[in-house]
Amino acid sequence: MIAAFALILVCQLFGEVISELFDLPVPGPVIGLVLLFFGLLISRKPPKVLTDAADNLLIHFSLLFVPAGVGVVTQIDRLKGDWLPIAAALIVSTLLAIVLTAMLMSKLLPKQTDVSTPDSAKDAS
Amino acid sequence: METDITQLWVYLSTKPLTGLTITLVAYSIGFWLYQKSNRNPMCNPVVIAIALIAFLLKVTDTPYATYFEGAQFVHFLLGPATVALAVPLFRQTETLKRAMPVIVFGVLFGSLVASASTVLLAWALGASPETLASLAPKSVTTPVAMGIAENIGGVPALTAVCVIATGIVGATLGPMVMNMARLKDWRARGFAMGVASHGIGTARAFQVNETAGAFSGLAMGLNTMATAITIPFLWHWIFG
Q: Exposure of A23 by Cβ count < 10 A (0-12 exposed, 13-18 middle, 19+ buried)?
């Protein structure tokens, strides 16, 4: 388990170094993700300790957003000033992106024989 | 008595332990309520936790920086967790190989629609340049979005708030809107959720349908990379 976490941190560290060294706009952890992904492709069968460690980190992925989210208390003035454009962008463009992307992908993805479709619209809400 | 409690709080609030404990307790309460509500997407554990902590900071007059002394330990894990996304992405290698061009095109399309419509709409409604730059990367996962916002002159803290709100909007209203549009392919539905509302949308997609979840995770991971590369280049190209 420790070795798996160490490997994840090493990927992140290399990512940060590459991002800093080449002055890339891509954040270090994303480069780390790419490095680990290619590492997995090369190894073909990733060790179970690594996949377990990754799964454990991701189970409560949403908890990790809480400290940054509480930062809302420092942004009250800006939110008050720009509330309309922010609210409109959050709701309208998020839903627009979802619907348009889903439409495009339903057209383009190759048809599967075992496509599971929602039994009823209610289940999917 | 009153002063004793005040002094105790003054003492405790300077300890990182307090911020860390509050974060975990608030999230546990949020998660408990979420399960009590039959996993109603409106009872989002992240929103509940943020609201509880923000309220607590307000009534105790504690600065965010003091809270963050402790909460940073949780925040730090966002980096390794982002790296760990390589594992679910790797599990989708077969799908990736089969439909690579379509998937790449879909990610670029979704990423562009999400950021361009955000910037255009907010600009038309008179948002300040800092707000625009903070909003632009709102569809990718928080640590990456904060990095992008910083790169293009936004306010990372505002970005974090907008990213989380975007995830919640997508997770709660996204499936409803796709039902209205009669979109039934689970793969396409999950994919769209992952592109537009990152980890929070993916968590939601997994609860509804496993295929949707897998495609959502795939789209989120690829979109993280696509947006981290496209937005900074486009931004510097358009706005100099």
A: exposed
